[in-house]
Specification:
Number of helices of chain C: 9
Number of helices of chain B: 2
Number of domains of chain C: 1
CATH topology of one domain in chain B: Ubiquitin-like (UB roll)
Order of helices and strands of chain B: EEHEH
Structural class of chain B: alpha+beta
CATH architecture of chain C: Up-down Bundle
Low-confidence stretches of chain C: none
Strand content of chain B: 15-25%
Strand order of the largest sheet of chain B: 2-1-3
Radius of gyration of chain B: 25 Å
Oligomer: heterotrimer
CATH topology of chain C: Ferritin
CATH superfamily of one domain in chain B: Phenylacetic acid degradation B
Number of strands of chain C: 0
Distance between the termini of chain C: 29 Å
Largest interface: A-C, 48 and 47 residues
CATH architecture of one domain in chain B: Roll
Radius of gyration of chain C: 17 Å
CATH class of one domain in chain B: Alpha Beta
Strand content of chain C: under 5%
Largest sheet of chain C: none
Helix content of chain B: 25-40%
Mean pLDDT of chain B: 91
Distance between the termini of chain B: 58 Å
Shape of chain B: elongated
CATH class of chain C: Mainly Alpha
Low-confidence stretches of chain B: none
CATH superfamily of chain C: Ferritin, core subunit, four-helix bundle
Shape of chain C: globular
Amino acid sequence: MDARTQEFLDQVQAGRQVETGDWMPDEYRARLIKFIEMHGNSELMGVLPERDWILRAPTLQRKLALTAKIQDEVGHCQLIYRVVEDLGKPRHQCLDDLVSGKSKFHNVFHYPTKSWGDVGVIAWLVDAAAIISQKALLKCSYAPYARVMKKVCWEESFHILHGRDTVLAMVTGTPAQFELVQEALNRWWGPLMHFHGTPIPAEEDPMYVWRIKSQGNEDARQQFLEGYVPQILELGLELPDPNLRRGDDGVWEYTEPDWDELMSVVTGHGPASQERLAFRRLSRAEVDWVAKVMLPEAA
Amino acid sequence: MIWEVFRQERKGQPFVHGGSFHAPDGAFADAYAREFYARRQESVALWIVPREAITAIEEFPDEFDLKYRRVDGYSIKERLREARERAGTASSDGAR
Amino acid sequence: MSDRARLLLELADDELILGWRNSEWTGIAPFLEEDVAFSSIAQNEIGHARALYELAARELGTDADALAFDRTLEEYRSAPLVELRRLEWARTIARHWLYETADAVRLEALKASDDPEIAGLAAKMDREETYHRIHAEMWLDRLLAAPEGRTRLEEGLRELWPYALGVLDDELRPVFVERVRARLPFELPEVEPVPRGRHEAELEELLGEMTMVRRSAPTGARW
């Protein structure tokens, strides 16, 4: 590592904030773009499992809340891609790479949704898992991204509440409604355990080394379990992991997730990956003429 | 075009940079600014401006260290102590 | 059912179905900024529908959700224009502009109503719709100014014109026609309106999907 890069690394590790126009090592810029782009991709792909249910929402209130939640996610994608653009990668390039499979998006958005139970579980628990990561990103060394995270965290606070409220309505409803939640939870628990990534020690995670992430993966997962397992169990729901328990030292134990499965999913082999990418490709092609007419510089 | 948005959270507060977006012209920029920075009534006012209208300034020469213009250019502790001793008003524990 | 309730349901159904159609663009609109803006328009429409259903519900002794979800196909009073399934973008804008123009005429009449509740709600809706109209006009300007945009938009307007004529009754329709003719740089044909009362096939399909979760639990279940 050359001296200038080493100095930069020492500075970010000491808490320095980096702005768009600052000199930065190529490796830092490249990792930043990849990480932030994946986040933007995830917000955009996250819309797809949920938007089918806008039509099917069982009350006007739920329909409005779900539409607003998805609207927020699209808005977050916009904010996040703008950060990537200012780092040097145009938005249309991000979209090209997303639909071609060249760039990635989070595991949870590679799975199908099957019922209104999924809608509640996703809005409550997937958003909860995401917000833990996002809160850690408030301390990202790259300041423009950290600032966007502030707005994102603030807006996402209602999502979890909406999700939990949706779940609560079902678990206090008919036995069939309760079952919808339990069944959805059984399917989503695996992806939720994968969500924060492999338990790589923070010091070995390049994202942490450069202080792009300020929290190790296992730390985030423990925070999720500590916060949400009690909330799930108190509703009378069960979790499909017989080994899940809180140790006396406060550390949660669980069946080791299949990390190969995670790798396979995020590289486009999840149950809904290809279908969703195809849908994105198609819908983008359909409106391509509009973007070209309206935003020639960004299309 | 890229537009920058400055938002005021409450009357009396300064306008703070909120973010940026693409819009074909001022009319669209107005609509999008409202959506992104005020759809939850989270701002009481917005300023929007094309990015190219903004000049960024980041280099500020300070060759001769003109500290006399700043509070940290003054260190009055010693002289104050001397003045108090002379006037007989210094307190026994040396407090200010 | 009173004329008042019938009127409220007509308005509410228009806003609900159009709001539903427009919300289908959430996540897949032509570009991200527009996606967020258009989603707000859709949410506002559903919000208007809810307020209108609530007024009708008080008179009919039911609640807004029951009116929105639990009626039979024949009981919906929406205009055929709003029932057409999610159209491609140029037609979406064409429908958006045509509907907002017709709705403006309708709201002007309702703001003058003797019924204070209806006049009050119409005034509230009209204030929010100001932004919808500005949005529709902006898009019209931009698309008309681009050759590809203008071709597609013109096509869409011609195709939807008979449906648009069916939104308003004989009394209000001429004002609407006048405003459309004054605004567009091309002629629209003389055609018969597609009237309310006949439902597009797509509406039945929409209602089926719209109610599938709700119908999966007994009436009165909480969601």
